[in-house]
Amino acid sequence: MLMKIPAHIKIAAVVILTLSGYGQAEQAPAPVAPSVYKLMEMKRSMEAQNIICAIGIGVSDIEMIANNISSDRARAQIAEYIRETKKADNDSASRPAYVLVQGAEVHETVTQYDKKTGLYTIYSLVALAPKKREVIPQSQSTLSAEQKTIAVIDSLGNVYTELFKKGDAAGAAAVLQHMMANYPRNPHAWWVSIAMSTNNFTTMMAHKSSLDTILGMIKNNTAPAEFAKYKKEYDAFIERMEQKLDEGLIKAAKGGEIDWEIEALKSTLGRTKPRKKR
User: Fold this and answer.
1) Is 16 strand, coil or helix?
2) Are residues 34 and 160 in the same domain?
3) What is the dihedral of CA 257, 263, 269, 273, to 10 degrees?
């Protein structure tokens, strides 16, 4: 009898295939159309002029829906950025997102169509209209350039989580591709990619050696104190998975059935017997 694998695990497998190319430093980011890179350059140019903007990604088999999703997600990123930079302002923090982004306009879109899957992937660059650009004057912004980058990466992670929960494998993979293409050498992006491939550190479908490789890249590109935070969370996650595998193997030894997650852990952790008690 074949074991039924939950839909979200199938999505994880798709994302892991996308992620695997970034586990080795010598490999280039997944291919993205030149027009998308041009869109990213436009975004950087706007940011240099202190214009609040964001790029959203939408995936659907209906072009109009993909377009709406991409612009909505860009506006959501802008609203989150405003809330983060104005977190000390209770009024801004409590206002609905649609109020914060009133006046936001789509400046440019890039549409890609995959004939094999029949899916549209649309990238939308959205920016606040001139009259709204003073929502966050530069002098009042408390975030450094690095902190802004991290905020955007975390926002992409949130979009990924939303798609993952909805069972949108293509959309999840597109978000990961976008993040790694835009931030191919950013350690925090690597960390978020680990979170993506483990469903926010709850499921282990990528082999531990692959995750260890990415963690090693993070170690080589971050300060010791910063890396220690990542390492602590990563070690705690691995130990949770090890304990779950031990429990499943012990249960199986007593005649119980092994479910899909335990079978997966046997492969990703590389063992078929419980650990010896210390």
Assistant:
1) helix
2) yes
3) 40
For position 224, what pLDDT does the model report? 92
The values of phi and psi at residue 85, to 5°, are -75, -20
- Does 48 share its domain with 175? yes
Q: How many domains does the chain have?
A: 2
Sheet hosting strand 104-114, strand order edge to edge: 53-60, 119-128, 104-114
What confidence score (pLDDT) does residue 93 get? 47
Residue 235 confidence (pLDDT): 95
User: Rounded to whole angstroms, how far apart are CA atoms 240 and 112?
Assistant: 40
Q: Which of the 8 DSSP states describes residue 115? A: T
What is the DSSP code (8-state) at residue 274?
Answer: P
Whether residue 177 is found in the same domain as residue 201: no
Query: Which of 139, 70, 54, 79 minimizes the C-alpha distance to 111?
Result: 70
Which of 56-60, 138-142, 227-231 is predicted least confidently? Answer: 138-142
In terms of domains, do 99 and 215 share one? no
The predicted-structure confidence for 170-179, as pLDDT tens digits, reads as follows: 777 777 777 8
Asked if residue 135 and residue 51 are part of one domain, the reply reads: yes
Mean pLDDT of 35-44: 78
> Within this chain, do residues 174 and 214 fall inside the same structural domain, yes or no?
no
> Residues 34-40: what's their mean pLDDT?
73
Nearest to 70 by CA among 40, 42, 114, 109: 109
DSSP codes, 45-63: HHHHTT--EEEEEEEESSH
Range of the domain at 92: 29-183
Q: 157, 183, 209: which is the final residue of a domain? A: 183
DSSP state of 254: T
Other CB atoms within 10 Å distance of the CB of residue 215: 20
pLDDT tens-digit map of 208-257 = 988 999 899 999 988 999 899 999 999 999 999 999 999 999 998 888 88
